[in-house]
Write a structure and sequence with these properties.
about 350 residues, alpha+beta, 5-stranded antiparallel sheet, about 35% strand
Length: about 350
C-alpha cells in the first residue's frame, strides 16, 4: 500500500502543478494503463516490470504523442506540438525537451534502438523517455530498477550514468534480497518536488514553451546587482555530453544568464547601457582551470533599457570534475557603444555552482 500511495501522490503532484502552470503538458498526460496493457507490454519485452514502475504506469501511461499515426517516427523531427513533461534546456543550436513515453512506445523504441547499443548480453533495459530529436535518452533497468541516462559515448559503447542514488529497502522488496526497485518512483518524486517548490519553471522562447531545467531556487540561481544592472545565472548538468571514462572535459554544464537594467530608483541614473566585454573564471574543485576574456556574449552586444526586456542567453562549459563553479563579470558602457554617456563599468556575475546532482533530469 505504501508504494501505491507514493505513486498516486507523485502523479497527483505533477498533474496539479501542470494544470496551473503548463496546461499543454497537463493535457498531454495519458490516463493510467490497464493491467492488461501492462501485461501486454511485459509479454512483448519478455520480462516483468518492477512493482513501483507498474504502479506509476497504472496512474499515468506517459504522454500522448503529437501524432499517434506516425508513432515513434514523430520523434525524428522538431514539432511545435511536442510537449515534454520532463523538461529540458537549450544552448547555441542545441535543444532538449524530454517526453515520458507511453508503454506502447516504450516497447517499440526499446526494440528498435537498444539492439544497436553495446549492452551486456541479457540486459533488461528499456527506453522510458527521450527528446524529439533523439539527442537524449532515459533508460530503466528492470533488473536493478535504476534509471539511467545515455552519455556522449552511448552510441559507441553503450555508456550510461545512473540518475538517482542507489537505495536498498528491506520492506516490500521486488525480489528475495529485499531490494526495492523504486528508483524511477524516487526519481519522479524528486522531479515533482522540484516543480512544486519552484526550482523548475516554464520557459517561453520564440519557438515554444517548455519546462526549463535551469534551476530558479536561491541556492543554485545566483544574483548580483551592479550600478543598476541585475545579472542572474544558473547552470544545469548535461549528461548526454558527459562521460564517465575520460579524464579531461569529463562533465558538461550549460548555464543561463539573464540581465536587465533596473529602474533608476535602484541607485543609478542610466536610461540604457550596452555590454561590450565578458570575463569568466571557471573552477574545478575550487581550483581555477580556465579564464575567458572576450568581446560580446554569443556574438551579441545586448543593449539594456531601463524597465526594458530582460536579455537572456545560454552557453556551456566542460569540467574535469563533478564539482566546480563559474563566475565573472561583464563590461558595460552607459548609453550605448555608439553614443557612450559616461565611463564604462563592471557588472559582477556572482559565483554559480557547477554540480552533478544526486538526481539527474
Amino acid at each position: 500500500m505504501a508504494l501505491v500511495l507514493r505513486a498516486k501522490q507523485c502523479w497527483d503532484g505533477i498533474r496539479s502543478w501542470a494544470v496551473s502552470n503548463f496546461p499543454d503538458a497537463y493535457k498531454s498526460l495519458l490516463p493510467g494503463a490497464s493491467e492488461e496493457e501492462i501485461e501486454e507490454a511485459e509479454e512483448k519485452l519478455g520480462w516483468r516490470l518492477p512493482t513501483s514502475v507498474r504502479l506509476l504506469y497504472r496512474f499515468c501511461n506517459g504522454q500522448e504523442l503529437p501524432d499517434e499515426s506516425n508513432d515513434y517516427q514523430v520523434l525524428y523531427s522538431e514539432n511545435d506540438n511536442y510537449v515534454g513533461i520532463l523538461g529540458g534546456y537549450s544552448f547555441y543550436e542545441y535543444y532538449v525537451n524530454m517526453q515520458l513515453f507511453p508503454l506502447s512506445l516504450v516497447v517499440k523504441m526499446s526494440q528498435r534502438f537498444l539492439p544497436r547499443l553495446k549492452l551486456p548480453t541479457g540486459s533488461k533495459r528499456i527506453i522510458i523517455a527521450a527528446c524529439c530529436n533523439l539527442n537524449k535518452f532515459f533508460f530503466l533497468d528492470c533488473d536493478d530498477g535504476m534509471v539511467y541516462v545515455g552519455t556522449r559515448n552511448l552510441q559507441t559503447d553503450g555508456e550510461m550514468m545512473s540518475c538517482a542514488p542507489f537505495h536498498v529497502s528491506n520492506v516490500l522488496g521486488d525480489d528475495e534480497s529485499g531490494f526495492q526497485k523504486d528508483a524511477m518512483l524516487r526519481w519522479l518524486e524528486e522531479y515533482r518536488n522540484c516543480l512544486l517548490n519552484g526550482t523548475f519553471h516554464v520557459h517561453q522562447d520564440e519557438n515554444m514553451c517548455s519546462i526549463s531545467l535551469f534551476p530558479e531556487d536561491d541556492s543554485l540561481c545566483t544574483e548580483a546587482v551592479t550600478c543598476g544592472v541585475q545579472v542572474r545565472c544558473s547552470a544545469v548538468f548535461v549528461p548526454e555530453h558527459s562521460t564517465l571514462k575520460e579524464e579531461n572535459d569529463k562533465y558538461m554544464f550549460s548555464y543561463r544568464v539573464r540581465m536587465r537594467l533596473l529602474p533608476s530608483r535602484a541607485g543609478h541614473s542610466m536610461e540604457s547601457c550596452q555590454l561590450s566585454c565578458r570575463h569568466w573564471v571557471i573552477k574545478a574543485d575550487d581550483q581555477a582551470v580556465n579564464e575567458v576574456r572576450g568581446e560580446a556574449v554569443v556574438g551579441m552586444y545586448p543593449l539594456l533599457q531601463e524597465n526594458g526586456e530582460e536579455f537572456v542567453y545560454e552557453s556551456c562549459t566542460p569540467l574535469r570534475s563533478c564539482s566546480g563553479s563559474i563566475e565573472g563579470d561583464f563590461t558595460f558602457v552607459p548609453g550605448s557603444l555608439g553614443k557612450p554617456k559616461g565611463a564604462e563599468f563592471i557588472a559582477i556575475v556572482a559565483r554559480v555552482p557547477l554540480l552533478v546532482p544526486r538526481y539527474i533530469f
